[in-house]
Amino acid sequence: MNELTIHVKNIKCDGCVQTIKNNLQGVGGVVTADASKENQTVTVTGTDLKQNVIIKKLLEIGYPATDN
């Protein structure tokens, strides 16, 4: 099992966290997804994770990844 953490903008409330979790569960290879509004991060675990696919999905739902 692999783990990937991505810094993300606009995680402001528990609803944001739930939206991210629900949407990333459907992405290929993702087994679990969690988001932290305090740290502004998204962490996913799974097999054969593709960072570019996860970042694209986050952008589609309004949570753009950052590079810091």
Within the largest sheet, what's the order of strands? 1-3-2
User: What would the principal axes of the Cα set say about the shape?
Assistant: globular
CATH architecture: 2-Layer Sandwich
The helix/strand order is: EHEEH
Plain-language structure description:
- This protein has 68 residues and is of the alpha+beta class.
- The chain has a single domain (2-60), classed as Alpha-Beta Plaits (2-Layer Sandwich), CATH 3.30.70.
- Helices cover 31% and strands 28% of the residues.
- It contains two helices and three strands; from the N terminus they run βαββα.
- A three-stranded antiparallel sheet has the order 1-3-2.
- The radius of gyration is 11 Å and the shape is globular.
- The mean pLDDT is 94.
- InterPro entries: HMA_dom (IPR006121), HMA_dom_sf (IPR036163).
- It comes from Panacibacter ginsenosidivorans.
- One of its GO terms (molecular function) is metal ion binding.
- This is Heavy-metal-associated domain-containing protein.
- It holds the Pfam family HMA.
